[in-house]
Structures are given as C-alpha cells and as structure tokens.
Amino acid sequence: MTVNRVLIFAGGRLDPGMLREVRSDDVLIGADRGALFLVEHGFKPDLAVGDFDSVSQEELALIRKHSKEILAFDPIDKDLTDTELAFDLAVRRSPAEIVLTGVIGTRLDHTLANLHMLLRAAEQGITCSIWDEFNYVTLCGSICRVEDRGYTYVSLLPLTPVVTGITLEGFMYPLHNATLRIGQSLAVSNQLAAPVGSVQVGEGWLLVIQSRD
Fold this sequence. Notes:
With 213 residues, the protein is α/β, with parallel strands linked by helices. The chain contains 4 helices and 13 strands. Residues 141-207 form the Thiamin pyrophosphokinase thiamin-binding domain.
C-alpha cells in the first residue's frame, strides 16, 4: 500500500490547531506524549512509539487502548530519541511526505536533532517539514517554492557549513548568487513580497524557516 503522508506528533510543544491538518489518508504516528495528545483529541494513532516515560500508567493504558499498534522501548536501553524512533518507522513506509509536529520545545538539543532529520529525509528523497503554531520549517537544496502560510518572517540558515548560489525571488530583500556560512545572520527575518517566493540553491542545504512571535 502506497503511503502519501505520515504525520508524527511528538512530545514537545503541541498545537491543537495542527489537528485540522490531518487528512483521512494520513498515517498518524504518536511519539511518547504525542500519542496521548492524539488519543485525547479523539484520534486513533496508527502507531504509538517510545519509552513513554512522560506519561502515567493510566495514560499509557489509554494509549494502548486507542492505538492500532504500540511499540514500547526501555527508557534506559535505547539509543534513539522517541522522535527519531518514530521518524525511522515513518521512513520505512516510504511515504512521499513526512510532517513533524511537537518537535520544538524547551530542550534545545532535541530541537536541533529534530531539525537535522530534515536532511535525513531529503537524502531519502522524502519531502519533510516541521510545523507548529509559530514555525514552519523546510529544507532546500535546489529550487524551492515558499508559499505564504500566514507567518510573518522567512529566515534562511545554512544546515551545511557553506551554502552557495542562493537566489531569492518574491522576497522583500532579494539575493542573487549569494553565499551563506554557518554563523551568519544575513538572511534572518526576511519577508515575502508576493504570495509565493522562490529560493534557489547552488550547493549545500538551506533551512527555510517561516516564523512568527
């Protein structure tokens, strides 16, 4: 069976508004507390995965009851974060797209690790994005459309040490054949000047972050 899109709900900051994005043919994966979030809002995860150390025994019982499948891991004897476990299981389904939500929170280490998953998806030929109430993050390594999704700013940050050949069209502050290096803030807090902008990259990988306060 071909899977078009997998939505992963992790245990970071979760916005109930994201539930409006769920389509009938989406595969839903809940990572740890993200599974509880889905169940509590009336959704039946196709898969619940994690060590479930952030839920009570009563909440875990609820997750078990309302999930189609559950994979529980020992919180000590595991090498991956719950989100990466969910991500790897999503990749195995060979979807066209993976959406991650609840992957940005107070733990900067987890947030950075989750941003790096965008590159892993790109290397597998899978479209991947991170969504929440305040951010929409994608990765660009060639030519990308940037649609106005209601966020205020568009920032471009290198995920590789150097990104060359950056050309922007449809932005308030255009660039032509520019180079960005890690640590530079030249392309932070740009804005779209049209309903759709375009980002072209020659070499390297560029995070495209739409955000609002």
